[in-house]
């Protein structure tokens, strides 16, 4: 009887061990723990400029070691956050400051250019007036000479008072210019050179000046030659008259 129980116990021992192992496996079976999906980044990062990423959490979880999967990055277009009223106000202020700075800089440049042009014009005018004065070594004095020139022009105006308009305009001008060439030759030469430099800027005035000067020179040369011929004729006439008178006196004796 005891032997029978011992044989039964040895026969059922492997079965009992298998059952205990199966029960332990069923009771103490380990389940796979999965990490939670990261939350959506709803706030703007502070220290970096990386755009927020969205993760797809709709992936299915399966049993087994291969159930752990990497989060899938969504390729949907990202929407930029709307600027706050403070940001919009700061942007408006920035644009206003840039606008004011640009216009202030432009006004400053224009003012500097205007002042530079005025200073250049003043310097040029001063140098021009100084270049018209005669040198001290020449002994030419402007003040009494200028008065004499004005008096000569006024005398020409008085002389041509009852004449035609052309004579009333030409005679004072001619007498004034002639007096200036006689009394202030160096100053008149400097003024003539300045007028010539100014006329060279305009081809029309330059050509008219050259034409008038050529005509005046030709007229003066013709008048000089005719005056010489007239003087020669007068000398010959006087000489022939004197010779005839001397011959008549000699015959009368």
Please name the defining characteristics of this protein.
two-stranded antiparallel sheet, 253 residues, single chain, 6 helices, mainly alpha, 70% helix, rod-shaped, 2 strands
Describe what you observe in this structure.
The chain is an all-alpha fold and 253 residues long. About 6% of the residues have low confidence. It has a two-stranded antiparallel ribbon. Helix 3 packs antiparallel against helix 4 and helix 4 packs across helix 5.
Q: Quickly count the helices.
A: 6
Distance between the termini: 226 Å
Q: Taking strands numbered 1, 2, ... along the chain, how are they ordered across the largest sheet?
A: 1-2
Structural class: mainly alpha
Name the average pLDDT.
77
Amount of beta strand: under 5%
Helix content: 55-70%
Sketch the topology as an H/E string, one letter per element.
HEEHHHHH
Short synopsis of the structure:
With 253 residues, the chain is mostly helical.
SSE blueprint:
Layout: H1 2-27, E1 55-56, E2 72-73, H2 85-132, H3 142-159, H4 165-183, H5 185-199, H6 203-252
């Amino acid at each position: 009887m005891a032997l029978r129980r011992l044989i039964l116990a040895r026969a059922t021992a492997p079965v009992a061990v298998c059952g205990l192992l199966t029960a332990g496996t069923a009771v103490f079976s380990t389940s796979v723990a999965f990490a939670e999906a990261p939350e959506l980044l709803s706030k703007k990062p502070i220290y970096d400029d990386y755009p927020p990423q969205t993760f797809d959490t709709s992936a299915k979880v399966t049993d087994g070691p291969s159930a752990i999967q990497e989060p899938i990055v969504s390729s949907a277009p990202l929407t930029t956050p709307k600027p706050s009223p403070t940001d919009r106000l700061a942007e408006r202020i920035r644009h206003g400051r840039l606008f004011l700075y640009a216009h202030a800089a432009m006004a400053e440049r224009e003012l500097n250019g205007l002042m530079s042009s005025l200073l250049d014009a003043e310097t040029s005018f001063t140098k021009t007036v100084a270049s018209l004065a005669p040198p001290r070594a020449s002994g030419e004095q402007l003040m009494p000479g200028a008065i004499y020139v004005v008096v000569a022009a006024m005398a020409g105006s008085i002389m041509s008072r009852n004449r035609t308009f052309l004579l009333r305009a030409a005679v004072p001008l001619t007498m004034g210019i002639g007096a200036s060439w006689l009394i202030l030759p160096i100053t008149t030469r400097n003024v003539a050179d300045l007028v010539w430099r100014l006329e060279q800027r305009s081809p029309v005035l330059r050509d008219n000046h050259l034409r008038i000067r050529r005509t005046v020179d030709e007229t003066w040369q013709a008048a000089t030659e005719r005056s010489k011929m007239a003087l020669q004729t007068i000398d010959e006439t006087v000489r022939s008259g004197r010779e005839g008178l001397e011959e008549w006196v000699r015959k009368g004796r």
